[in-house]
Structure formats: C-alpha cells, structure tokens
Amino acid sequence: MAQAPTGPIAxxxxxxxxxxxxxxxxxxxxxxSQHASHVAMRGQQSIETHFxxxxxxxxxxxxxxxxxxxxxxxxxxxxxxxSVHALSLKLKTxxxxxx
Length: 99
What we know:
Blueprint: H1 8-21, E1 25-30, E2 50-56, H2 65-75, H3 77-82, E3 86-92
Parallel strand pairs: 2-3
Antiparallel strand pairs: 1-2
C-alpha cells in the first residue's frame, strides 16, 4: 500500500478508494502540472485537476474493465463533478498480477 498523497483532492481520492476497495496496491499520480497551460484549465480554482490511478483490489474479481471503471467513477462522483477534470485508471486484480 502506498503512502497517502499530500494534496487535499489527492488525499480525498486516496481515502475514498482505500475505504471502499481495500486495495493491495494503490498509486495516485497528480498529473495536473502537465496540463496547467491548457485552455480548458484557465480559470480553474483547483490546482489538482488531472490524476492517474493505478490500483489492485480483490473487489475487481469477476468484473470487466468497464464495470471496474464505473465502480471507481461512482466512488469519486463528487470529485469528478467539482474538481477533477481528468482521471486515468489502471485497475487490476491480484490474480491478474500474480500477487
């Protein structure tokens, strides 16, 4: 398990995903700085807008990739509506990684 990120939105994402999915591995990468100059980001109040999430959880067993993504989107619904502009997901089960 990874250490909690430092930014407030990243910490919220970490907490929500950890509490629901009980991941064996979780990595949250804030990629916002790579997109700060984009037109869509002008006027944004939050500096945390783009994230990559890599997570391994037993909860994904038996789910296809679309269902896994929908599960994460549901947990992070508020963040996606208010502050997160982009979310890249890499979601696996322990058995898919031979853990």
